[in-house]
Amino acid sequence: MLALVDQEDGTGKELKAVTGLDEDGKLKTINPNKNNQNSFLEIDPNRNLLENFFKKYLEQSKDPSHTGFYLVTQKLLDKIIRFAPIQLEELAPYLVEPKQFLIERQQPAPDNTLQFPQPTPDAKQEQKPVYEPLDEKRIDFSQLEQLGVKQEDIETEMKSMLYRHKSPHLIPMTPIIEGREVPTQGRLALEESPDGSLRFVPYYCQNQLDLDSPFHGVLLTSDDKEQLLNTHNAGRVIELEPAPGQKVACFVSVDKLTNRLEALPVSEVSINETLKDVKLSPEQRSELYDGKKTLVEGLTSRNGYPYDAYLQINASNKSLDFTYEGLDRNRYRQDTQQEQKNATESPIKKPLIKKSAGIKI
Fold it and tell me: What pLDDT score was predicted for residue 83?
């Protein structure tokens, strides 16, 4: 949900849910209670809706009457609609600056995303890898007809797929199976064919998660199943056997959109020493490589505020999961309040925090 703190009443402390923009580009808001929940402007940060919203807002807004935008997660939203007290400090990690958001959207991937490096022509000179998208001209779009998918239906999904990720959202499909069209939905990914062309690979939804059948030749333990059900990550590295006699150490996670298990080889993951302005210790990096959840303190949010989080590699998303269970979200409250006060009193804006490279493949 997109929210803001309204200061039209002079208090600057009334949280509002954004429902959209009017024809003049002015914000339309509503009280964030349960009765109004169907009217909220629900935001998926991976899609163009938020980009278009901010572009229109910046084009037409002149004197904002609020303290900023917040991308509120479902967990925090549940607390809001229960009328639980919300401190502004709790919202600090979710603050979004529209101009910076649009700038970052032009970058290929955030720092918690696993990327696929493509070596430069002078790779033998030990240059750093360059992260480049796949060449869209190599895609065989005629294959979409066999899957019952229209090209215009995947336009907003292409950016992720060109960077070797699955489509961020479920796509309606009607593949032809045994001569019959079967309505379903799933995610798409791009895969290179032997002839150099790129083909679409579908990942169809399953009605329920299957943890009892062998996964790439390996039966999951009871602990694996419990971890996958509770956290969607196995919590350890599992040696899979995709082919007889072939052993591959992998991270294993649940794709929550398709109810499928996904594997990511450990050999394809490289974790930087620095993440969000924090130097990871050898122990923290070792725990991440082991598939475990590790606590990292003093991370820097998009707007420069500190916060703590548990990190864990997610094989399905090829990214780091950030979770906050049991953490004191008010730990940096006093410092954050002082920084917010200084930012309000000073006409000079706080400099942007430069992000580190994060995790790479």
Answer: 61
